[in-house]
């Protein structure tokens, strides 16, 4: 299996100790080895040969520094907070054309930075009293100057799963997918339910099937804008489908040989498989193997 999964594998010490120590954080910003990730909004600025660009800290830039962590060489790594009032399209995926130019470690560092910058852009005001908030904890929180409430970057859990029945597995497609593209079904975990319950509910709501024996496979951060994709498998009780057309355009059961053909990109395959970056492909490879 190809490891790490997309947006995982950042070899960096997140340095929580510096987030709560104002003097140590200030010292890190003065470290001559410190660098800042070059960003265009929430997209990376590509280098001439691909890869990320890390720049020396610019004292003329008054945007707040957000600590990403300390690299293997002991150098602090930062990204700048967005300017107040900046407009950001959190779900934009124009970066996808640049991701293949990044190493897995770079993609992971960028993914974390993207989600963090986006969170700050959307949380300038307190959710309790609506007063302005200020950055604290090295960029990993915002605090209200009025009521004192503290707010922290959120992660939205999403289950993404394959339902299997004997030697077949269920794949589906949404209306916006490219022609012929099918993937694993997915949905957000709701308050008050376990991962296993979320898998069963989503498969029933979207495809009308009952499942049991839910097992965890792997997880992946997905920075569009801040999801954690939790990959699972489940055993379907039968193959009769009732598709929710508000969620899916189509769904179908495919045999193991069909999945292998799609993963190999064979001409005439019954569907187009997800790209290597996505955990959906990992799930299909794991099942097909």
Automatic annotation (TrEMBL):
Pfam name, any one: NUDIX
Protein name, entry field: NAD(+) diphosphatase
Keyword entries, A-Z: Hydrolase, Magnesium, Metal-binding, NAD
E.C. designation(s): 3.6.1.22
InterPro entries linked: NAD-cap_RNA_hydrolase_NudC, NudC-like_C, Nudix_hydrolase, NUDIX_hydrolase-like_dom_sf, NUDIX_hydrolase_CS, NUDIX_hydrolase_dom, Znr_NADH_PPase
Domain Nudix hydrolase positions: 153-285
Residue ranges crossing the lipid bilayer per the database entry: none
Cofactor(s) essential for the protein: Zn(2+); Mg(2+)
Source species taxonomy: Bacteria, Pseudomonadati, Pseudomonadota, Alphaproteobacteria, Sphingomonadales
Catalytic activity: a 5'-end NAD(+)-phospho-ribonucleoside in mRNA + H2O = a 5'-end phospho-adenosine-phospho-ribonucleoside in mRNA + beta-nicotinamide D-ribonucleotide + 2 H(+)
């Amino acid at each position: 299996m190809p490891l790490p999964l997309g947006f995982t594998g950042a070899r960096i010490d997140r340095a929580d100790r510096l987030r709560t120590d104002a003097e140590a954080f200030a010292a890190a910003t003065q470290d001559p080895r410190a660098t800042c990730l070059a960003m265009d909004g929430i997209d990376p600025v590509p280098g001439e040969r691909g890869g990320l660009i890390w720049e020396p800290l610019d004292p003329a830039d008054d945007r707040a520094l957000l600590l990403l962590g300390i690299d293997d060489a002991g150098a602090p790594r930062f990204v700048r907070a967005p300017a107040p009032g900046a407009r950001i399209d959190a779900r934009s995926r124009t970066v996808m054309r640049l991701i293949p130019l990044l190493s897995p470690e770079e993609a992971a560092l960028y993914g974390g930075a993207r989600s963090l910058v986006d969170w700050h852009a959307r949380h300038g005001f307190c959710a309790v009293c609506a007063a302005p908030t200020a950055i604290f904890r090295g960029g990993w929180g915002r605090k209200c100057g009025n009521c004192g409430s503290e707010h922290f970057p959120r992660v939205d859990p999403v289950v993404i799963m394959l339902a299997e029945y004997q030697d077949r597995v269920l794949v589906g497609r949404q209306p916006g997918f490219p022609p012929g593209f099918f993937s694993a079904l997915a949905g957000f975990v709701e308050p008050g339910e376990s991962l296993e319950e979320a898998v069963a509910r989503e498969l029933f709501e979207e495809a009308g099937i009952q499942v049991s024996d839910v097992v965890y496979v792997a997880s992946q951060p997905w920075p569009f804008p801040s999801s954690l994709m939790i990959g699972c498998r489940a055993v379907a009780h039968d193959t009769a489908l009732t598709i929710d057309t508000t969620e899916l355009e189509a769904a179908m059961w495919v045999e193991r040989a069909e999945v292998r053909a799609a993963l190999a990109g064979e001409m005439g395959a019954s569907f187009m498989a997800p790209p290597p970056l996505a955990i959906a492909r990992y799930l299909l490879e794991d099942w097909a193997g």
